[in-house]
Amino acid sequence: MVERTPTLLGGKWISEGPGLERVGPFVRTVVSSARVAEPGDARAAAEYAKAGSRTVARLAPATRAAVLDRASVLAIERRAAIARLLALELGKPLRDGLGELDRVADTFAVCAAAARDIGGDVLPVAGWARGAGNTAMTYRAPAGVALAITPFNAPANLLAHKLGASFAAGNSTIVKAPPQAPAASAAVVSLLLDAGAPVEAVQLLHGGGEVGAELCAAPEVAVISFTGSAETGAAVARAAGAKRLVLELGGNAATIVCDDADLVRAAKVCARTGYSNSGQSCISVQRIYVARAQKDRFVQRLAGEVAKLQVGDPLDPSTDVGSMVDEAAAERVQGWATKSGGKIALGGNRDGATLSPTVVVDPREDAEVVVKEVFGALVVVLPFDDFDAVLQTCNRSSFGLQAGLFTNDAGRIFTAWRELEVGGLIVNGSSNYRLDHVPFGGVKDSGFGREDPRHMVEDYTVVKTLILRGLSIWGEN
Description:
39% of the residues lie in helices and 23% in strands. The protein has 477 residues and is of the alpha/beta class. It has a seven-stranded mixed beta sheet, sandwiched between helices. The protein is globular and about 75 Å long.
């Protein structure tokens, strides 16, 4: 029998109550069971978080930083166990899960550094006549209660970003875990508590959208960080009302391969980053635009590289591509490929939740694989003739998270950086690359706010101003 993953509510782990089983998409058997939130749990969590927020806020930044540093060490010590949970609950290959835990360790360490950097300013008020004779200072105070709603595709590292930055800022955090990864989410929460965070620092609830909506609407919650689809992000905003929001939403990432690009490198990078985590990433390579004269050669090289990827058991260390999150997701992507009007140059086959890595060439411009977020093991290749025109083609998407560009032409690089409507541009790499200590986020339907510890600490704190009258070396006018 699978051990039930408890709720962490009011400082106590609670296993008794209604449960929800998670069937692993590759093994097709129950791999975890979560105690889901009961009516009243969201209200109780919000009240406890508000009451406990002062305990967290009173911890010195050095104390919070030390806890986060210890959590970083624990993440490495427990990486194999948590990576195995990711493989079972999500079908994520073990090597990807181990890599995600390495990033969890880095993220907690960067959050520790961010905690040490929290400060304020002495403002130059005496430069204006009404400010003469005054001294003004600011400092960043904890917002109070933060709500972290995390997705299934990278539940460990994205939770580390939200929880780590919130704790660094001095907040009490409520975590609403994805139903697909309850055990992995609980394991990450335990890293912080076992590292010495007070019980008031975090609570963990399992459940669906109704639990998230109730938490979003709670008046005790001051700031919400959500990662997920654009549709759900809009629902979060409606439920939240006048609260501070950080929304990291969907993508439809484009990568441009110019005529001066190294096709061998571009094909290898796009193959590796187009199908990692079965393409279930908001910045996963989806649309590849290739200079027309190079397109056929690129497709041949890309298909060759993709064919080398090993598809299979996510617990096998040699597996490159495991399963998607569930059979319905894999069936959807397979159907989009079939209806795209393009040539399926490779893949297109499905076994349950496992979709073989698929390459679609020359789909219709209005096909779902071009205009929507695929979020699956599928990449499309299209030709372009004019660089300025392909930038505009990329911008027609309602999403704007990240883009990739293969070229050595400095003019093209800076033009793309200026003109592409995205939050980040990766040069001589695909869209699917992220450094956890560097600003990350999008524009348009891809959301707003930046998810790196420094900027998240800013979102999780409020600026408080102090004005001292008559305590200046300059007298009043």
